[in-house]
Amino acid sequence: MKVLIAIDSFKGSASSIELNRAVAEKLNQLDFVESTTEIAIADGGEGTLASVQHSLNGEILEIPTIDLMGKPINAKVLSFRAEGKRQALIESADTMGLDLIKPSAETVKAASSKGLGLLIKEIEQRGFQKVITLGGSGVTDGGLGLLKEFGATFLDRQQNDLEEGNLLLDASEIEISTIRFPNIPIIVANDVTNPYFGNQGAFQVFSQQKGATAEQIRQLDANAEKLSQTILKELNIDLATLQGAGAAGGLGGALAILGAKMDAGFKLVTELIDFEDRLKTADVVVTGEGSIDQQSLFGKVPFAIAELAKKYQKPVIAICGKKSITNNESSPFSGIFSIQTKPISLPDAMEKATTLKNAAELVSEIFITAFQLSKNGGIGHGFK
């Protein structure tokens, strides 16, 4: 039996790489398991850079830039070759992550996407032929700091040139003609469908969790709408309807202005690492994540893997730390199992050693049971 193991991280407990390794080591002790293939997996969010590096053997570079508050930092960039091109993968959260600040009205005023603009410019200058950006952010500036690094000019109502901090709080006008568009393709891994502004836009939906007051949210949304009218008129890009423009505090929209293309995070990652071709050769797939619930049905890693495996009639078992969904006949999973063996507190359940031990032992027991049940009908039958 050939087993493909692609478990997403159990956030706060164990990484995809660690979970895959623990499960593979246990399964490799079983006589009927011919081989295991470990694929570090992610959907464009936390841990994606490490997952892709694990599969592609790329090089992690540290490139100087600034964080969302203007502090000098070294951002991690994955350098790799694919499609005959030297490509760079960056996580926006590395320079602008919400975890880098204590969200407040003051951080909303100060936080800027300038650092990501500096980083993309440096990547371009170093001769990379393609850049992929992913992940969230703690900024609410609509990507204006990034756009300013590429030459855009922003004026307030008194016609003053805006320079620092959250430009969107005061921006009344944008000058498009001064923008220098990047010479390399930019791909945005994005699973958010929110537009740039409006009731479902970046500012009304996400800014409060980043510390914005009701008045700041009103200002941000109103100014974003006004600037978007100029962008529609001059570039024919409609940020009011563009799905994903509201991602990462409006960065999706700003990058779209620079010509970036958006792609679903899981799709982009799996294409980079040739996941589908590797899945075809497996007999059984093991996946999972920290919590499997109703939300998991909307494109999260385990469900996306199960749907892809269904295409090739591969049985899929999913493991999780917390299960709050019932498997049924219409589910793409052969089974969904919690690794918890007894009542346990959340801190104890999230101990890395406990998670890895329980995950490995559970999967091993499932395979042994399935093998016993299917002795007379073929190994795979035990998972159907």
TrEMBL record:
InterPro entries: Glyc_kinase_flavodox-like_fold, Glycerate_kinase, Glycerate_kinase_RE-like, Glycerate_kinase_sf. Gene3D superfamilies: Glycerate kinase, domain 1 (3.40.50.10350), Glycerate kinase, domain 2 (3.90.1510.10). GO terms for molecular function: glycerate kinase activity. GO terms for biological process: organic acid phosphorylation. The keyword Nucleotide-binding does not apply. Pfam families: Gly_kinase. Keywords: Kinase, Transferase. The keyword Ribosomal protein does not apply. Signal peptide: none annotated. It comes from the Bacteria. Belongs to the glycerate kinase type-1 family. This is Glycerate kinase. The lineage of its organism: Bacteria, Bacillati, Bacillota, Bacilli, Lactobacillales.
